[in-house]
Design brief:
Number of domains: 2
Strand content: under 5%
Number of strands: 2
Oligomer: single chain
Radius of gyration: 21 Å
Strand order of the largest sheet: 1-2
Helix content: 40-55%
Length: about 290
């Protein structure tokens, strides 16, 4: 797509192309639009890491869950360009969380609202994978024996072919090796509650219940505003439960970024309309070509 330029159509009429959304994984989004790393702060609200270098601290959510000012970001980006050395620019970025992006030359481009949270990377390759492997596996809740039982139970399922790939072996390596985003989605929405319920303590059943419910809402093609509000409250409960039972150090970027998924949906429609599943599939196809 050619940005901010008039193009001539075959029928002789002119059209104008515009960039209104940047949907990609977190590192790419930050570099593309001039934001500091997601390991330091959020690009949409005032949340930043605490002294322990994590994003824990839900008690004061009303103080930091406030949309950043795009005008301030653009001004900081211009000031970054005025810095006279790389060292000076690095200090400026640490202080403001902002660097210059060529996209800011587009007069209409909003570097805050136009940068979405991709649901595929955030929910499935992010939170789903992280909860399973970094809490339940690493904390010893899902042992190798339990993984074997889960794998055996999954062989009893018969699902429609149009649901795409279903999870394969899960007891390899540290567990759930090489799961794709599609597999994580299917695993949580179809298999997980049935195969895992009896192996989880009560606190983790709560986390699982809220997360499955949130995913069931967010993957819908048609969704009501009240449903999105329920999903947002569910995500808040998930983070609070993890923080309460496993400590603030477990609150990593994808968890707090998920709180902005509903905002993105209000701007751009249901999450399926801008998630990266189709792009990732195309990348896989292109990667196999010579």
């Amino acid at each position: 797509m050619t940005l901010n330029r008039t193009n001539e159509c075959p029928n002789g009429k002119d059209i104008k192309a515009a960039l209104i959304i940047a949907s990609c994984d977190i590192p790419a989004a930050r570099k593309l639009c001039g934001h500091i790393s997601a390991l330091a702060s959020c690009h949409r609200c005032e949340k930043s890491t605490n002294k322990q270098r994590n994003f824990g601290g839900m008690a004061d959510i009303d103080e930091w869950f406030v949309m950043k000012d795009a005008t301030v970001h653009c001004q900081n980006a211009l000031d970054w360009r005025k810095c006279k050395s790389n060292a000076e620019r690095n200090k400026f970025v640490k202080r403001t969380g902002t660097r210059w992006s060529e996209l800011l030359r587009l007069p209409y481009f909003d570097p805050i609202r136009f940068v979405t949270i991709d649901p595929m990377h955030c929910l499935f390759l992010g939170i789903a994978k992280w909860i399973t492997k970094r809490i339940w596996v690493d904390e010893g809740i899902l042992t190798e024996k339990v993984l074997q039982l889960i794998e055996k139970k999954m062989t009893e399922f018969r699902v429609p072919a149009d649901l795409g790939r279903t999870p394969g072996k899960i007891k390899c390596g540290e567990g759930f090796s090489n799961f794709t985003a599609d597999q994580w989605r299917n695993f949580f929405l179809i298999y997980f509650t049935v195969v895992l319920w009896d192996h989880l303590p009560f606190k983790d059943r709560q986390i699982l219940t809220y997360f499955v419910r949130v995913c069931m809402i967010l993957v819908r093609r048609i969704v009501e505003v009240s449903d999105m509000e329920e999903a947002h409250e569910g995500l808040i409960r998930i983070i609070k439960l993890i923080e309460k039972h496993y400590g603030e150090e477990k609150i990593m970027p994808n968890l707090y970024l998920s709180l902005h998924l509903c905002e993105c949906s209000y701007d751009y429609g249901p999450l399926y309309s801008f998630w990266c599943f189709s792009f990732e599939r195309m990348n896989g196809i292109l990667g196999k070509k010579n």
